[in-house]
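Fold sample X.
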Amino acid sequence: MSLEPDAPNRAAAASALKGPAIGMIVAASIGAVVSLFGLMQKPDDARAVYEMMKLPKEQVDQMMSMVGPLQKVMAIGFFLLNVFIIFGSLKMMKLSSYGLAMTACILAILDCNSCCCILAAPFAIWGLVVMNRAEVKASFQ
């Protein structure tokens, strides 16, 4: 008796997960690009917003001293998150790491960096539903 899942079951599981995985890859790729744009954005763009709010100059200067570094850290964090989602989605397509694929789906739902979470969430939920089927779960290595 072999512990390896049947080839037809494995092919069916891979086929069932292909749609959600591709959707998550596309959404996370867009999210990664948006994060890179956030990394390239100048903090002076935020200064104009604060000045339009008619805040005192001292308060604007204080806020600007925090905006630049925080903006860079957040952009790098969201970029890395999206790269992880892409990696997990690729693992999901190959049926090679159940835990990583599940984590990628959950993070894709929680990734609220941009409009990409609206795009990724349905695919991630679809992926979670499919991966929780017994025959699909058994197909993972």
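Fold sample Y, listed below.
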Amino acid sequence: MSYKIRLFIICCVILITGAVGLAAVPIANEEIACDEAGLAQLLEQFSVSSDIPYEEALRALYDAALAYQRYAVNCGYIPDAVQLEALSEHTLGQMDIAMLLRALAVGQDVDAIIAELADMRGDPIRGQLLYNGLEPAIDGSVLSCVGCHNGVAAPALAGTWTRTVEVRLQDEALAGYDATRYLVESIVNPEAYVVSNYMGGLMPPFYGEKLDMQMLADLLAYLESQDQPIEGD
């Protein structure tokens, strides 16, 4: 999935699910049938009278537009490329850069991240570029992985996957973890588990705000390729 298409999808989700106001719309689309009678019910519920004050009418129009969009999508309509581009431009016009980055970033909810990763395929070559600071994160900065993971300040890169499976996951503190969960948590919430013999507080806690889901999948694919025989801890 390209970055631009992903951005379009995020914009659609933001508007359709109510992140910018739909929560205030008194409608439960699951109770309105996807047929002519249901459409008539929707149009009647969201008709806007010219008799109400102007500011109140503006809000009613906005709520109606959001409700109509959600109804159409819930009933199977797929917006075309022109509509998606217009929607994304409108959404971007309502958002500052900080809001956009938060929408793109994976965050720190490990369970939610793993659920989304299940349908994704990572590119280990791009993951290598990210790891080595040769490709920027979503905010334009570069990751500092290669500067610390040298076996002195932090565990070395070589053998990361092997150590995860054969050493880390043997720790009772990680009962119930698999390699993916351990690595995801280590990236987005590094203080949750600190490897013995290494100092806590060194790994930045904000990578969950710098990576989108594809970037994280790419990093994981690169780390999975690090299956050399164990070197040190």
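Sample Y note: The two ends are 36 Å apart (CA to CA).
Also: The CA atoms of residues 21 and 140 lie 30 Å apart.
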